Amino acid sequence: MTNSVHPHGRHRAPLPPVQVPAAGPPPPRTHHPITQAAAAPPTPVGHRTAARAAKPAKQRDAFFDNAKYLAIVLVAMAHAWEPLTDHSRAAEALYMTVYTFHMPAFIVISGYFSRSFDMRPDRLRRLVTGVAVPYVIFEVAYTLFKRWADDDPAQPISLLDPWYLTWFLVALFVWRLTVPLWKIVRWPLPLALAIAMLAVISPDIGDDLDLQRVLQFLPFFVLGLFMKPEHFQLVRRREVRVLSVPVFAAAVLLAYWAAPRMTSVWFYRRDSAQELGVPWWVGIVMTLALFGCSAVLTACFFAWVPRRKMWFTLLGAGTLYGYLLHGFLAKGSRFWGWFEEYEWLHKPLGEIFVTVVAATVVTLLCTPPVQRVFRFAMEPKMEWAFKRDAAELARERARSA
User: Fold this and answer.
1) Total-model pTM
2) Is the dihedral of CA 310, 358, 209, 202 positive or negative?
3) So what's the pLDDT on residue 6?
4) Distances (CA, A) of 21 to 15, 101, 177, 285
5) Mean predicted lDDT score pLDDT of the chain
6) In this model, does residue 44 exceed pLDDT 90?
7) What does the pLDDT read at residue 35?
8) Residue 243: alpha-carbon gap to chain centroid
9) How far is CA 235 from CA 120, 289, 351, in A?
10) 164 — alpha (psi -120 to 50), left (phi > 0) or beta?
């Protein structure tokens, strides 16, 4: 290992010859640099603030931004494939494969970045402004869009019944509030799996706040919550990357075989076993099986996410914008009957065209200009709505001093 103090090794230059001091008064004492720095007068508060401001901001991890962008692209592509699955077994197989891991991967990352969440006032404010408020805004916006685009003026606005993509915001709000609880239990992941299995055999849960999805996807959030950086390093090893190729191929072949034999509704995790018309024990088996398959394919996905900064890395900060905004086009294409009107979309070239359009649209919706336009809805400051605590006031006084 290179020594940071001696960058060229430990070879030292020869010592100078010993000189006998001349007679006379001793030379003035010089201070050692460290002692001199310690004895220097304290830096004024304003200078300290300027020094802090001069420090570079904490850099984002390119790996996670890349992973979020690629996951959101897969989400958009899968939504575009959904109308094609009735006429194409290959599209259904790809749809089922991607649905196995695209949202689990996104949720694992959400859990990983929720590790530091506590009930501190500033973090609660960010939870409200960054999750709860966008949920209310987009729940209303989606409902009004459906009334207009689907000619359904009776569509009610209901904050208790998330419509389409807004379920994820409800789930993230609930999951993040429970972070302190997961940190004190002894076996968090087995407990989360037990809750998911109880949910899948509980048809009385109903549709309020889409709790079936909240509870059935919960194990992935808890998994991410307790992951460490070395776990992501482990799945990014070369041997894992090589092994992931045949694993993905086997998953696609399995999905191709299963496409006519099972319903893809299982991957949505929004219904109980009884609602899907199967015995309760099948729900438990499917919950465990899907969790295992999702965990394996999520690891394979992470193995191929680039570690370095790419052209799309910057877009990773805007994935929630792309996620919520692309829903208007995804639903509009169904309301306006594009897939029924243009039959060529169900041909192989049409399927490729739909895939490219979906990836392009969601990419554009993640860009900084779109973020600036819609920041009022996605990241409102809302300083007028919150009281400031003593610690925050003290920080403000220190910044202004």
Assistant:
1) 0.82
2) negative
3) 36
4) 17, 77, 72, 88
5) 85
6) no
7) 35
8) 25
9) 33, 21, 32
10) left
